[in-house]
Amino acid sequence: MQIEIDALERNGTWKARVEVRGDTQVAGIDYDETFAPIAKLVSVRTFLAITVIEGWEIHQLDENNAFLHGDLREEVYMRLQPNFSSSHPNKFLQVPRQEHLDVVYCVLRYLNGSPGQGILFRSDSSLQLYAFCDADWAACPKTLRSLTVYYVQLGTSHISWKTKKQPTVARSSAEAEYRAMAMTTCSSVGQHV
Questions:
Q1: CA-to-CA distance for 156 and 141, rounded, in angstroms?
Q2: What is the pTM of this model?
Q3: Within 13 Å of residue 77, how many CA atoms lie on the same side as its CB?
Q4: N or C, fewer C-beta in 10 Å, the chain?
Q5: What was the pLDDT predicted at 53?
Q6: Contact 64, 3 (CB under 8 A)
Q7: Which of 184, 176, 182, 192 is closest to 153 using CA atoms?
Q8: For residue 165, what are the β-bridge partners?
Q9: What are phi and psi of 147, to 5 degrees?
Q10: What is d(CA 62, CA 67) in angstroms, rounded to the nearest whole number?
Q11: Could you read off the pLDDT of 76-103 as tens digits, one per residue?
Q12: Closest Cα partner for 192 from 35, 82, 72?
């Protein structure tokens, strides 16, 4: 990742995920039909877990970055992805306090003292999918929205986890738990949550 960032700074360019298929598209017919393969990390972790369990060989090809060099002389039709520039800034970024900085330092000290820590994919694991979730009802004191926490594992390999505020206020702890289960189920079957 650092190599890519250095290359971006060196070239004075920043990548945008743009889908262009000028080689096969016809004007006015199929400019909206694009395909850009993007792998989600949960897909990569699932693939690695299955590969280890099944004893398959893995070959890796590293491509640091790809840039379009040169000037375009042709007319190119491009469309940015709708959620390209959306991000979820830290909720305390606007008014940070010392306690927030202390937490950041604590996390950085942990990461600095734990190099090489990662996810273990065991070869003697099963292909059984397990999902665990919990909800903290009305966890946010300002909005009273509940907090969903879940993680999914394939055998003994952790492949997905998330903590997220629920989109609406739950009327009871049971409703918050049901919403947490729904979010966990959607993530387990590969639906966007």
A1: 35
A2: 0.56
A3: 14
A4: N
A5: 93
A6: yes
A7: 184
A8: 147
A9: -110, 130
A10: 15
A11: 555 544 445 433 335 666 677 788 778 7
A12: 82
State the SS3 of 4-53: HHHHHHHHCCCCCCEECCCCCCCCCCCCCCCCCCCCCHHHHHHHHHHHHH
Strand, helix or coil at 110? helix
| Coil vs helix vs strand at 190 | coil
Token code pair at residue 98: 């010392």
Q: Are 152 and 131 in contact (CB under 8 A)?
A: yes
Residue 14 pLDDT: 53
Which pair of tokens denotes residue 87?
């991000």
Sequence-ordered list of residues with C-beta below 8 angstroms from that of 141, at least 6 positions apart, any chain: none
Domain boundaries, the chain: 2-39+61-80, 124-193
Dihedral sign, Cα of residue 37, residue 40, residue 42, residue 48? positive
Query: And the tokens for 72?
Result: 């375009």
φ, ψ for residue 44, nearest 5 deg: -65, -45
Residue 73: per-residue pLDDT:
60
Q: What is the pLDDT of residue 124?
A: 93
For 115-153, the pLDDT digits (tens) are 777 788 899 999 999 999 999 999 988 899 999 999 999
pLDDT given for residue 129 in this prediction: 92
